[in-house]
Amino acid sequence: MTWQQNGTALIGTIVIEGAPCLSAGAVTGKLRGSLITFGVVSGQAEVNYAGTFSDDTMSGSYATNCGNAEGEWTAAKTG
Predict the structure, then answer these.
(1) Deepest in the core among 2, 47, 65, 78, taking most CB within 10 A?
(2) What contacts 43, CB < 8 A, 6 or more positions away?
(3) Measured between alpha carbons, how far is 66 from 68 in angstroms, rounded to an integer?
(4) pTM
């Protein structure tokens, strides 16, 4: 995932591995304190993420209409 932050708004791109309906797309989101929400849509497939961030790491849960999957995610800042 790569994004730019403008105030509390996030916009960028994401690559998703292992999902049968979605492999990449545009991502938009919002920051509120230590809370983060973002989503990606490609065609009719949609993935919604929610979680928290601290320093260079984030984690939370996701849900998608692609096979009605849901689970946990983690991410760390690189570079």
Answers:
(1) 47
(2) none
(3) 5
(4) 0.80
